[in-house]
């Protein structure tokens, strides 16, 4: 078995204990031992002197949608930005949508029902979760992937009506599908309660799914019904903060079912939602104190990627495509959005087009307000045109979540919390403008928040990027630099590590300070650059 020695390492091992000096011997896919100076072996196949660098476990992206990318033949090219920022494992299948289980009668177009594929055609040769995971293994993933089963996915198998409540027979089918996916290796369940069909789920239905997960000992990752004080998920006559209600509903269900609750991508969307951060975190803290198994995850940005249709109310979506051309519906939409935007606190400047899902690409990277000026249309009309041309598949970065440039107190508070794990939630597409999170999330945390702002220690950050995330989803022997663990390793320079953020004219670039990355004992990034011929990730069946 091949041996590689990482000499003169400053080791942050992922457990939270203080950094220490040592030499790491990797044998085959695993870490063989951590050696002191006088234990060094006389000969090994390869020695890398890592003096001056920190060696830590590979980062785990807790909330990923790469399961929609991995089945594509060119996935290694698309995912190399994740490896180049030190991510060695992703937990995919989030926000209620997973590519499995699938049934042939759904047809190839079904993937478009979900928000994530960027409308690239998706050929499915699998039906069950087990077959999907086999398919991914054979496709040689570029990094390790653990897979959640999505509620929206099983809903589509049980019912062809998206917005309709499931009958008790359909409900039984859905639950059986989730159980089967668990049995075949899914590491948990995801709920997308802000999107159709999750938005229509009753509390009783959510509870039934959570009870099943709890009995199976698997976590539930939930995209909440609301991340702002006002949302389409609840009636506008509900005058308290919608996001707090959404959180309390899930905590009540966790209290009843005992499920491990993972709140996905914690966000406070819109200026007027920011002030709810203290109450929100207090609710989480007291639930934790009460014994509820709750954690959350977040990314270090004041924007997030979503679809162009995200602000369109369900009555308008239900009337598409005719509604695009109907002046009366336009007027109603305009009035509603005007009121809604000002109550929540955002406007059309906060929407940045990153992927137009057509062949033109001319406006990618620009704000909707800017595109509107160029096209000489109103901002709303511009957004509807982008929606119409892309059939709702265009993606945007939604700014004004958790703060804004120069005012990031809310974001700092989220990232510093001990129950916060780290993630990208980044959608990626072919060649176009990416969400900067796909390139810079982990280097940004270690550079900006650990080194520059000193919000928390490197040991604390690494623990929340690695071992805690692995434990959350039951990823065995991952997330620690200890003998016997899989050799998923990142070697990085604590003085230079940083993201390279986007500017007005340029998208984000490859981060600085990531030197080498190993996945399962194989070097996949050398001097910051991905070695494209290596696809040595594993599918982690739990
Ligand atoms: Zn989500
Ligand atoms: Zn997501």
Describe this structure in words.
The protein has 542 residues and is α/β, with parallel strands linked by helices. It folds into 2 domains: 57-302 and 401-477, TIM Barrel, CATH 3.20.20.140; 308-398, no CATH class. It has helices spanning 75-83, 129-138, 151-158, 168-183, 203-216, 242-257, 277-290, 314-317, 327-344, 368-375, 379-389, 409-416, 437-452, 458-465, 467-472; strands at 3-11, 20-27, 30-35, 46-49, 54-57, 59-61, 87-92, 144-150, 188-192, 220-223, 261-263, 294-298, 303-307, 351-355, 395-399, 420-422, 489-492, 498-500, 509-512, 514-519, 522-526, 529-530, 539-540. The strands form 4 sheets. Strands 1, 2, 3, 4, 5, 17, 20, 21 and 22 form a 9-stranded mixed β-sheet that branches. Strands 6, 7, 8, 9, 10, 11, 12, 16 and 23 form a 9-stranded parallel β-sheet that branches. Helix 10 packs across helix 11. The radius of gyration is 23 Å and the shape is globular. The two termini are 26 Å apart. The model has no long low-confidence stretch (mean pLDDT 93). Bound molecules: zinc ion (ZN) (2 copies). One zinc ion binds next to loops.
